[in-house]
Amino acid sequence: MEFEWSTNDIAKKTVTIYSTNLTLNKAACRHFEEVNFVLLGLDRKNNILGIKPVGKQEINEEIYSEDQLHRISIGKSYGRISNKNFISELSQEYKLDLSNNKCFKYDAKFDVIHQILLVNL
Question: How far apart are CA 8 and CA 6, in angstroms?
Fold first, then answer.
């Protein structure tokens, strides 16, 4: 027997890039439920987008400067990070045509050791 097992799409972490925001599906949001802010970063060498949750303690201790913090809004079935400038930089770097309501959907995985949601671009 040679089964090819199906994946569970409900458990699959997904990040969608729109012209004005990043949208995380419910599975990806699980890692951001207790925070209001994240860090956004690009590893250009490895083509990876990183989204790191920033907790209240890190904010109170001013570990990251205010201009590095991006608000994340969590709804019942998705999360949203709005940052038009970051998305514009991302779309130029990776030649993403986001005009006419186009979007790009990517699988993501959470790096437990570094506490970063990794999106392979």
Answer: 7
The verdict on residue 1 lying in a domain is: no
Give domain status of residue 39, yes or no. yes
Contact partners, residue 11, CB within 8 Å, separation at least 6: 27
Is residue 36 included in any domain, yes or no? yes
The CA–CA distances, whole Å, from 54 to 51, 59, 62, 101 equal 10, 7, 11, 30
- Strands 70-74 and 48-54 come out as unpaired
| The total number of structural domains that make up the chain | 1
pLDDT digits (tens, 9 = 90+) for 74-92: 999 999 999 999 999 999 9
**pTM (2 d.p.):** 0.89
